[in-house]
Write a structure and sequence with these properties.
By secondary structure, the protein is of the alpha+beta class. The chain is built from three helices and seven strands. The chain has helices at residues 13-16, 19-22, 98-104, and strands at 28-31, 37-47, 52-57, 65-70, 78-80, 86-88, 94-95. It has a four-stranded antiparallel beta sheet, with no helix packed on it. It has a three-stranded antiparallel beta sheet with strand order 5-6-7, with no helix packed on it. The longest helix is centred in the last third of the chain and has 7 residues, at 98-104. It starts with 12 loop residues before the first helix and ends with a helix. Bound molecules: zinc ion. Residues 70, 72-73, 75, 88, 90-91, 93 line the site of zinc ion.
Length: 105
């Protein structure tokens, strides 16, 4: 059985043409406040005060990181400061800086 591959292995181009056989989930997209379509990676993210923040990419191969989508209200409308704190402008969901989060859970 070789069905479990390390995440670092990229699928060959031919495999991507057959997404139903290689992807457990359908590629999820979301539209940003300025009308861009971005791609949500539900496997990458951080916990926030109201819900998780997931990483979004501007391309479907997850090469070009765009930012975060709020998992609470599903909007891509948030700000990150230099400390790594992310705050959703829509619902107020907040991700605290990483080191703070780890020390207090
Ligand atoms: Zn939100």
């Amino acid at each position: 059985m070789d069905s479990i591959l390390p995440q670092s292995i990229r699928l060959p181009e031919s495999a991507r043409l057959n997404p139903s056989e290689n992807y457990a989930d359908v590629m999820e997209t979301i539209t940003t406040t300025d009308g861009r379509t971005v791609y949500v990676s539900r496997e990458e993210g951080d916990r926030g005060s109201k819900g998780p923040f997931f990483v979004v990419y501007s391309d479907e191969e997850f090469q070009d990181r765009f930012g975060y989508v709020c998992g609470h209200c599903e909007r891509v409308d948030n700000a990150m400061d230099s400390m790594g704190r992310i705050e959703c402008n829509v619902c107020g969901n907040v991700r605290k800086p990483t080191e703070w989060d780890a020390a207090h859970e």
